[in-house]
Amino acid sequence: MSVTTTAAPTTPRLKPAAVGATGFVLAMVIIVAGNYNVPKGENGGTGPAISTAVLSAAVAAVLFGWLVPRVRKPVRATIILGVVTLVSLAAFWSGITPVLAAATVAVANSSAEPSKGTRTMRLLAVAAGLLAVGWTLATSHLF
Fold it and tell me: At a CB cut-off of 8 Å and minimum separation 6, what does 137 contact?
């Protein structure tokens, strides 16, 4: 005699490490594109690229190594991180925006039942990260 059980379908959750890696890769795209083939007299170059890459790596390490695993109130943390992500657009060239957007998504995904505000902030954070990447690529000297 076999017993079959049916479980409620669950939505797949993104792994925080994968989300963090994606945010960091997008940050590196911004940093490389923004500092590639910079004409003499303009801001940017190898030195600024290295320093902003180190800054982005440090922020990612703090967010995904310490903050994201310790969040106890994911709704509140999502809103706070989302707002910080939107504010970081002022310094989009630093690469921090996609890292913060990734942290916002990771925290929002940890919520058992995301609220409308959480879903909205997650969407705005993703849009901000993609806007930072798109703007940097559009204004870069890559093409």
Answer: 29, 33
